[in-house]
Design goal:
Distance between the termini: 21 Å
Number of helices: 14
Largest sheet: 10 strands, mixed
Strand content: 15-25%
Order of helices and strands: HHHHEHEEHEHEEEHEHEHEHHHH
Low-confidence stretches: 1-33
Mean pLDDT: 81
Oligomer: single chain
Amino acid sequence: AGTYLLFTAGSVTVLKLLRKNKKFYYKTNHFISVSGMIYRMKQNAVGLSNICILSTMVLVMVSATSCMIVGMEDILHTRFPNEFGITSNDDPAQDEVFRQVDDLCADMGIAMENKICYTDIQFAVAETDDGFITDENQLDVMIDAASFRNVVFIPLSDYNASTGENRQLGEMESLFYSNREKYAKDSLSLFGMNFGIKERLDEFYGNGVVESNIISGYYCIVRDEDFERLKSAAEDGLGIPVQASTYYGFDCFVSDELKQKLREEISAVLSSRGFNGHMETRFSERDSFMGLYGSFFFLGICLGFLFVMATVLIIYYKQISEGYDDRERFVILQKVGMSRKEVKSAIHSQVLTVFFLPLVAAGVHTAAAFHLMTLVLSLLNMLNVKLFFFCTLTCFLVFGLMYILIYALTARIYYRIVSR
């Protein structure tokens, strides 16, 4: 600090003698300002880094939790693609149960929309460069958990009936969809059967179970004949029976009271038949999801508030300490000839730059963490990346305004100290 004061005093003394040379004057003045700013940054590196870390944590937590609350409907539609969803674990009476559900809706005057029904078989596998590992003994020793996948096979007839399309596939051809991780290969081999990928689908609305799983899922639509052959090959390869499950879902646009009544009637039918499966309804799960994600939002706001308060206190006490450190330099610079306006301008530019660098760095860190946060949110059924981007941008702008307000309030204390 003493060396800095001597250097500044000597520089300004020379500056007084050469004031007539305006070009040299401004260059020297700029050099003094830069030297002062470098000194400030070295002196306050720890405090500035703490402000940057706290600001980043505020931005990440508040943007992620607020996105989950704002995008609650998107989350519910991802986890529960249909208002009513019934999953049968290969129950022999499932067709009769589904017909009874249709009759119940007809008797209650409820129109069934977006009806979907398909059978699938799922396999938990580990993806490697050479293919997929299905042996449980080998899966237990897999180190990279990120390589695990859920592979779901669906007959083409069920896909066409559910989507209203009329797709055609050749032998060992498939339609392919991946819900998270991209699959770069042109074919998929499992249990000695190699399915070529004829087309990659942009979307596929399943039963929501695979989407809610922490690992990525691959959907593979194959011919009915190939589906049966795959099931037999899987039973031979695994040495155990492979259980197929059937999903039956539909939407209905009626009041929640009528939905609840229908839910009770369907539950009574499933219970009376000893149905091997379960039912999920979007409207009945809304409150539990709001409670869970609302808790995340509450924690995000509380922790964000604490971190903001910590940031305010760091900036406040840093402005006070900076003020007392700069007061002597402020006096010396005026004694050696610099005007009050010039000194105040130099100090203002230094303080402004130093204290706003953490905000810029926090924005860079948040941008770097954006992709990772989208992956974390996808595990919580939040797949709307565009919504998360706008929530993050909004949080950054709001926090930036708060940061400017905090700086403006604390800067007044700083200038009051150095002006005494």
